[in-house]
Amino acid sequence: MSPDHAFFIEPNSVTGQSFILDKEESHHASHVLRMKAGTVIRLLDGTGNGYTAEIKKLGTHVSGHIIETIPQLGENTTPIHLALGLIKRDRFELTLEKATELGVQSITPLILDRCIKRSVNLERSRKQIIAASKQCQRSYFPAVHQPISLNEWINSTTNEIRIGCFIGSETPISNVAKMFPSKPLHIIIGPEGDFSEPELKLLIENQIVPVNLGPRRLRAETAVMAALAVLNETTN
Hints:
This protein is of the alpha/beta class. It has 2 domains: 66 residues, CATH 2.40.240.20; 156 residues, Alpha/beta knot (3-Layer(aba) Sandwich). It is 31% helix and 25% strand. It is elongated, with a radius of gyration of 20 Å. The two termini are 23 Å apart. The model has no long low-confidence stretch (mean pLDDT 94).
């Protein structure tokens, strides 16, 4: 049975079979959740290691014993990287949370022609990703990058498999697993209003594989969740 609560632990705070939480996580365990010695918890180091552990001592720094080490806890077998046209803050933050829960390895915001926003609070975004990772108990915390242009994204992924969710494409996203079995995937989704015509032309010229998410026009955050859900089901 999986422990109910998970905590972030710095990789260097696990030594042999012992662990020690930082002040913030210790406060949450001791004073918010009011845990007791003997409670079994989950630890996540953000780099791909999960642990089942037992609390031995509470206080300013909660410490205890490692029961089990679980490499790649909660991780997909096929890495998926998301590039998304910047959207309004509340919707972008919802996307961060759900993309984290659905297993993406990285999130790259894109500054596109129809984007209203042009910047991201990276510190706030990383805190949200840690919170979402703890909630769903995954051991790797996705990287969120500074916003970049479409050309920069294209150039940085030249040798990768790149999938574009385009309105009107004839290929369903569920076919991706058959087309590229067990291959890391980079998926790109447009902002509110979708890609502009010049952007679509640029993507097609650079051999981004077009796929569709069904017959309806979806909000960007809905498109992310729909695409990742299908890829989780078909590629992992």
